[in-house]
ABC transporter substrate-binding protein (Shinella lacus), 531 residues
Amino acid sequence: MKKLTTLLAATALASLMATAAWSKTFVYCSEASPEGFDPGLYTGGQTFDAAAHTVYNRLVEFKRGTTELEPALAESWEISADGKEYTFKLRKGVKFQTTEYFTPTRELNADDVIFSFERQYKADNPWNKYVPGASWEYFSGMGLPDVLDKIEKVDDLTVKITLKRPEAPLLANLGMPFISIVSKEYADKLQADGKMELMNQQPLGTGPFTFVAYQPDAAIRYKANPDYWGGKQKIDDLVFAITTDAAVRAQKLKAGECHLMSYPNAADVAELKADPNLHISEQAGLNVAYLAYNTLVAPFDKVEVRKALNMAINRQAIVDAVFQGAATVAKNPIPPTMWSYNDAVVDDAFDPEAAKKMLEDAGVSGLKMKIWAMPVARPYMLNARRAAELMQADLAKIGVEVEIVSYEWAEYLKLSSAKDRDGAAILGWTGDNGDPDNFLDTLLGCDAVGGNNRAQWCNKEFDDLMTKAKETADVAERTKLYEEAQVIFKREAPWNTLDHSLAVVPMSKKVSGFVQSPLGDFVFEGVDIAE
């Protein structure tokens, strides 16, 4: 069966590439299928790479290789003195992509920007629930419905956003994939035709690449957008060859079947570095991996239980086995390379005997629990199954029986966010915008419960600090607030913080122009390959 699946995937990829035989084609060996092609609906990095960073643009974007914002669909902006009004001047002459399924009749204007926002927070908008069971997890999880007062069209190329209160991270948030700008004209046509679901299957934006076709779990094909406002790309065709096995991705790269791959196994990196035809890009990842306890479900609602489990797990052993030196044990929910990291926080010690006694003192015995293991490799967790097995063995030593469970990736993300989820889930995060709010509030704030907050942890003391930090633009003051929040987090232990990893991107030496992102994105704008 495995051989048949591999053959079908290879056949699908060959079919998708056939029409590009005489063009310059770049093949990226990606690690997972996208959840869909509407980046507003999802939080997975593979979805952002497959949609937000290929098909779409945002008002502002991050300069490649940095967390520095630069103009994109908005060529300039002004912020009022009270921090409540943001006025964006849109770039003139931006064209939406022409595809086999839609031909635009007008250029980007303010209507598209307003529609892109309103569909995510207005319950009466017909697009608010166009995908059954899906939600605007990022938009709501970051508290935007609470802070956004209104968005207005000043003229065709000017949009004004008014907030209820100052929101220091707002501009950085607008550079994130979830607020990609979509075509209102295309949406109106889909709605009129009764085919709204195609927005999530046949994307259309203003970005550098135009969507062509998707063979589920096998390949995605794009072509360079000839009308891209940033200039036509040097490569003619871009193919995502979806390859879930990291070892197989490495084999394909070495064989020349793809030009760049994501997330190699730690054990394969030395061999890849030794290959004279390859180049390895490395940088400290702006990331964290964690084990999120469901703090709404007993006995994980007791901080003593969570602390005891943390003390029973040997995180250094996990780092050694899974990353082979390419990661460090985490003690805080933000990486040490991020401003406001509180190095004074005292980490939980690895102490199984103390952990066992703490469980007994909490009145917990014969505990049986589930650990959820991610089915895919991410930079912050290359092998969740192996990590879960090590946790299972450690917890058995203090009398805790662990069952390891997993699901297909899109299902895993959905089910792990449920408020009644059992056990503890392995997950992680790569920063989206370089702001601590993107970790602390997005993953642990009360607004994110039932979404990105997989611990379902709502602590008023912590949440008040998040609100105060958002409302001041003073970096020194925000730093103090975030440092205090990290102390509360460590005291309450909604997670077991596992690791911060080194991000490694292997590629062919034929590749030029690829810039590794501190945000973990795979962006192919500006990339070229030698003939």
The chain has 17 helices and 20 strands. Residues 166 and 471 are 5 Å apart (CA to CA).
